[in-house]
Write a structure and sequence with these properties.
- The protein has 242 residues and is α/β, with parallel strands linked by helices.
- The protein has one domain (2-37, 55-240): 3-Layer(aba) Sandwich (Uracil-DNA Glycosylase, subunit E), CATH 3.40.470.
- The chain is built from nine helices and six strands; from the N terminus they run H-H-E-H-H-E-H-H-E-H-E-E-E-H-H.
- The protein has helices spanning 2-29, 48-51, 82-94, 104-113, 141-150, 154-161, 175-182, 217-220, 225-240, and strands at 55-63, 121-129, 165-169, 185-189, 198-203, 210-214.
- A six-stranded mixed β-sheet has the order 2-1-3-6-5-4, with helices on both faces.
- Strand 4 (185-189) and strand 5 (198-203) form a beta hairpin.
- It is globular, with a radius of gyration of 17 Å.
- 35% of the residues are buried.
Amino acid sequence: MDKMNDLLKKLYSSKWEKISEMLQSFNEEEPDDFDNLATHPLLIKTDKEYEAADLKVMFFGQETNSWECETNDGIFEEGIDIDTLLNRYNIFYLKKGYEKYGGYFWNFIRRLKDKKSDKKIGYIWNNVLKIGRREKGIPQQGLINYTFEYFNVIFQEIEILKPDVLLFLSSYRYDTFIKKSLGNFSIVPIEGFSTKELCVLKFDNFSVGLALRTYHPGYLQKLGKEKMDKILNKIRQMTDKQ
């Protein structure tokens, strides 16, 4: 655990000076466009439960909005340090602070984790876009460009944390962003589902036990309970076989 966290912190430290400079510059360009101001990057860490797991799952949301809102109302602030953001992840995710929240995404994750299994399954949370905006929704293109140019770290996070399963709860609309982080992939259909509903991703540049992509849980709700349950159960079944 300590080794993984040390490597993650070293990775973030190598990028921190430049991404901090660029985010500060981004926010100074249009300071009155409050909703679109860059928030703090999502920095992740792990714990003993994940390290000791028989099966490691990294699941991805879309982007983090208003992250670390205790600092400058969630707007990126020059001088914020890496430890503050790692502690935010620890409080919110590892120590299950998210359980206080409603919302489709975390309700889906709770249901996913409730699956009974003979294996010890460890889950780690990530996002396809590591830097979001102050309000909900996809960031402006300029901020997305900064993220991939100066903070494109997901491949290295995967190398460090060595998940057996990648689960993208991001929808096909984020496939372009996944490719910017992890390279090209082919889409393999799963019987009984359209490739938009649920599919396997086969990456060209690296191998992983299993990579699945489905809709964001907010949209899964719109498909109806029966379809959502079918997708969730298939994810559980395929994950458990790894």
